[in-house]
Amino acid sequence: MATATVPTPTRSADPPRRRGLTVAKKRQYRAAYLFVLPFFVIFLAMIIVPLAYAGYLSFFRRQLIGGVSFVGFENYAKALTDASFLSSVARMAGFLVVQVPVMLGLSLFFALALDSGMTRLSKIIRLGIFVPYAVPSVVAALMWGYLYGPDFGPFAQVAGLLGLPAPPFLTSTGMFFSIINVVNWEFIGYNMIIIYAALRSIPPELYEAGRVDGASEKRIAWSIKIPHVRPALVLTVIFSVIGTFQLFNEPNLLRTVAPTVIGNAYTPNLYAYSLAFVNQDVNYAAAIAFLLGIVIMALSYAVQLWNQRKENRS
Q1: What predicted TM-score, i.e. pTM, was given to this entire model?
Q2: Rounded distance, CA 132 to CA 228, Å?
């Protein structure tokens, strides 16, 4: 009787041993780590350590009688019911809704105009729009504070020559829009450059295909250019959200010419600064700063999530 021979399973070959790194490769890795080491050291010393220390301070309270004591989340609970802090956050939310669409709309318009190639002296115009971003915000606030001045500013002097009252730039109502004007003047050029760089990366074949189909320049801008620069627009929106809630220099310097209009809590950053360096309440200021950071992160994440969902639908 013949017996069937069952083939014995052969042992698979051992996986090839991973070769060790060559000396040249090790040198490359070592050089790469050395190049990035200064960044990590500075990032750790200037960002992570101060953040951790501020978070540590926010859990304590300093009193004249009793010294420093651990209070847990009491400072955060106090901030959530602080009318000054909440009103400053609400004011900046309104600032975001009014200022950012105007700034990004003008930035997009200028970028499209320069990219169209139909603008004369485009390099000079581009430089002229971008130059205000190179001006420090302190200098810009001082300059506009002089221009807004109701007694010495040129606008007030011209109005006086015409027999008109001085423009209400520094009144309680006008200050909001005066600061919007300063921020727009500073950052339209910066955002324009980001959008313009995105426009220059669009393949020209898309424009040629649109023109072959009879599309006008306006149609090409609306249907080809703007959809392709949407990631850049989202980036500028996120930068604008962060910058709006960190507004400090402009209201702080304009406060010197309008002290009755801009108080210590005009913006959240100004309020945290006043708490820390005027009221000497560092612990509560740290809690305010952390809550402000949470607001900024939540809004930035909401913008990214909205953009991602819109991309998934398209």
Answers
A1: 0.82
A2: 27
